[in-house]
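Cytochrome c oxidase subunit 2
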Amino acid sequence: MGQKATRLAKLGGSFGLVALATTGCSANDVLRFGWPEGVTPQADQMRNLWTWSVIAALLVGVLVWGLILWSVAFHRKRGEEMPRQTQYNVPLELVYTVIPLVMVTVLFYFTATTQNYVLAQEEEPDVTVEVVAFQWNWEFRHLDETTPDGDPVSTLGSSDEIPLLVVPTDQVIQYEVRSNDVIHSFFVPEFHFKRDTFPHPEKNNQDNVFQNVIDEPGAFVGRCAELCGTYHSMMNFEVRALPGDLYDEFMGLRVQDNPVTGDLYTASEALTEMDCGELCAPEAVTTHPFNTDRTAREASTREQN
């Protein structure tokens, strides 16, 4: 009885620790099973697939663990007599052949359905953006908006400024990605999606177009997710999602001359002019430019020594 009580106490303590550890998580956090939060319907669909796949895996695990414990408890050795031997059990063999086949088929169906939803494209998106990657920065060209000269409204990143990709919320956005040199990759973690950017995608037989809808306003860091050279890790950008009315105001400014500079408003200047709080911060708030002054690191190293 003493050993049994000790085992029960250990088991109860383990459950208690698990319960204590999970009390700090909301129901939504628990059901995500570590999956990060997204800001698009496509990301939510992938989270649903992940959640139910994990639940199914846990149920299978519990069944297997139960069968193992049942075998250990009720079919352990009870003497020297050899138990009855059976060579074939056709019904059992059919069961453990059919059940995995059904599981794989169901998982494949929901995976394919989710993939089709994520990659689906509408014929007439609300906004179309050409994403141009190059060593080691980005250019965003709004193909639906043109300047008085007839050129697309464009935002070009530099060593001093992180490029801002300003898009509207609750509208279908189409991204057309390509590269000017080597292979890069357009990746926004909150989208739960990335797409490699190739030079001449039409010649490389690459599908370089995808669409999504951003559910909520905010600023989301974007990265290059393909090793592309010396400053690959510094090749960041920021997606700034604005409500429809603010986006329209932003685009209206982008095609006007700034009375101070005499040139067209840049993305930063337009956001400053709008003055709509943190959402219209003129500079990236999720990342910062890389210091390209090669003497800066040497100077800081000498100071530390």
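thats it. The longest helix spans residues 41-74. The chain is about 40% helix and 20% strand. bye
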